[in-house]
Design goal:
542 residues; alpha/beta; ABC transporter transmembrane region fold; Rossmann fold; 6-stranded mixed sheet; 4-stranded antiparallel sheet
Length: 542
């Protein structure tokens, strides 16, 4: 989901259009109740008993039609909001996962979880739904205004003037309440900090005999919190009471004005009860729009942040460059972590289907080299080519069509073993012959056959109930199934016992691929399992 206009987050779709249509229809029909009041007034005031049948029929029609329109109104409102929520979350997840590794790591997982679970829900409730409500209220206002002007223009002007004054007064009082609220929230924050400090600082308070001193501070914070909390509650109550009384006074004055218009012959008596209904229909949207607008304004920062994340630059997925052969050529490569040089003018060539073992001390650059090959890190200079193609020119799809990675701690998804191997491939596209071969070659068959549901067994908690060897075999099966010409193995056997590690190394040995493996193990003669051993030391490759 890309947003071309950075100020907008709502795009027109069928559900929103239908919602707005039904909202207009709903309030048009709602005015039908006002017309029903008019009919009843004519019957009661003017004695037009011939209208009784019409009134009964109108009531029945109104009830049936209004219920149907209300249903459509609520249905499309909820569907439009849910569709918006789904589109934003889908677009956001796609954007996040399409970023470069460096860009992805700029934010932690907590931040991303907050975006999905807090920010988008907040925007739906206080931005999307409020915009929808504002449109509804404005539709109500316009339709009611036209109806009111047909009854009496002067009375309509009086209602609008009274409504405007009410809104301005309420807005002014709300602003004052907000100031008190801000002060109270600051005090509450200080009070909560004192609670947190006390609980976290128990060992220090206990060992330093500082209980009396801390309690003096805590009592001060508590006293201040209760003082401002009471003040805030009092101001809120006063505000609500004043608004209610003021609204009642305004309505009484308008009723008095309408009565004078009837007495003066400027308005028919039958419309007197109608005007009472119109007061609420015209004034209520003014309050609602003001309130909705305030909520929409409060979403500004969150809205802009979500838009920024939705439009965050992503990696090119499909590139024009293709890889012909699985060979690796590194020329004059330089890389450093801050002031620490890892590679300095490094050159290395690895032939197609060659098996290479990387050796070196901790921090020498073994894992870093693999990260450079997968673009998790970017070189400071020099060139890395795969099959003659500069990896900087490769799209993500082409790069990882050719490279698989097996790591020390495999990532397993909360899904079936099958989906963990084929990585969510559509069932109709799964090559079951290749799948079964991968399961067998990875030494996973015995384990799978013991499970009641076999490959359909769901891994709970990311496979935490599995042994390290079982996890590694699943990831190895995943790699074999992917069938990439290059396999990078990063300390995959370091956490396994000797026999399991030997079994896994034999599996790697049997792969007809270009393999680069890193390992610290000394209890296995790895040299005999690889075509060549490369030592990384002092930024050089030997």
């Amino acid at each position: 989901m890309k947003i071309s206009d950075r100020k907008k987050l709502i795009h027109t779709n069928f559900n929103f259009v239908m919602y707005f249509i039904f909202s207009a229809l709903f309030f048009v029909v709602s005015l039908g109740f006002t017309y029903l009041i008019e009919l009843v007034s004519k019957i009661a005031v003017e004695g037009q008993h011939d209208l009784i049948t019409a009134a009964v029929v109108w009531l029945a029609v109104y009830a049936a039609v209004s219920f149907g329109i209300r249903y459509g109104f609520l249905y499309f409102r909820k569907k439009a909001c849910c569709k918006w929520n789904m589109d934003v979350k889908t677009g956001l997840m796609n954007n996040i996962l399409a970023r470069s590794p460096a860009a992805f790591k700029e934010k932690d997982r907590t931040y991303y979880m907050s975006l999905f679970n807090d920010d988008i829900g907040f925007l739906q409730k206080n931005y999307v739904e409020m915009i929808a409500d504002m449109v509804t209220q404005m539709t109500t206002f316009v339709i009611a205004l036209i109806y009111a002007m047909n009854i009496n223009i002067l009375f309509t002007v009086l209602i609008l003037a009274a409504g405007a004054i009410s809104v301005l007064v309420t807005n002014k009082l709300s602003a004052q309440a907000s100031k008190h609220n801000k002060t109270y929230m600051d005090v509450l924050g200080s009070y909560n900090e004192a609670i947190d400090d006390g609980l976290r600082g128990y060992p220090v308070i206990y060992k330093s005999n500082a209980l009396k001193n801390f309690m003096k501070l805590f009592n001060e914070r508590t006293k201040m919190n209760e003082k401002y909390h009471a003040k805030f509650e009092f101001m809120t109550s006063i505000l609500n009471s004043f608004v209610n009384y003021f609204s009642a006074i305004v309505q009484m004055l308008l009723m008095f004005a309408s009565a004078l218009l009837v007495i003066g012959g400027q308005m028919e008596a039958v419309y007197f009860p109608v005007t009472l209904s119109l007061m609420n229909i015209l004034i209520s949207p003014m309050y609602m729009v003001m309130n909705d607008y305030s909520l929409i304004k409060s979403c500004k920062d969150i809205k802009l942040n979500v838009i920024k994340e939705l439009n965050f630059p992503t990696e090119t997925y499909d590139g024009a460059t293709a890889i012909d052969e699985a060979s690796i050529d590194i020329e004059h490569m330089c890389f450093a972590y801050g002031d620490k040089t890892i590679f300095n003018d490094t050159n290395l060539t690895i032939k197609n289907k060659e098996h290479v073992l990387l050796r070196g001390g901790s921090g020498a650059g073994k894992s870093t080299l693999l990260k450079l090959l997968t673009r998790e890190c970017t070189t400071d200079g020099g060139t890395i080519r795969i099959g003659g193609a500069d990896i900087k020119t490769l799209g993500r799809s082409e790069l990882f069509k050719n490279i698989s990675v097996i790591v020390q701690h495999p990532m397993l998804f909360r899904d079936t073993i099958l989906q963990n191997i084929v990585l969510f491939e559509d069932k109709e596209k799964i090559d079951f012959e290749r799948l079964n071969k991968a399961v067998d070659l990875a030494g996973l068959r015995t384990f799978v056959d013991k499970l009641p549901k076999g490959l359909s067994t769901v891994l709970l908690d990311s496979g935490e109930n599995l042994s390290g060897g079982e996890k590694q075999r699943i990831e190895t099966a995943r790699t074999i199934y992917r069938n990439t010409p290059i396999v990078l193995v990063d300390e995959a056997t370091s956490g396994l016992d000797l026999e399991k590690a030997k079994d896994l190394e034999r599996i790697f040995r049997g792969m007809d691929k270009l393999i680069i493996s890193t390992s610290h193990r000394q209890d296995i003669n790895l040299s005999e399992l690889y075509d060549r051993t490369i030592v990384i030391e002092d930024g050089k490759i030997h």
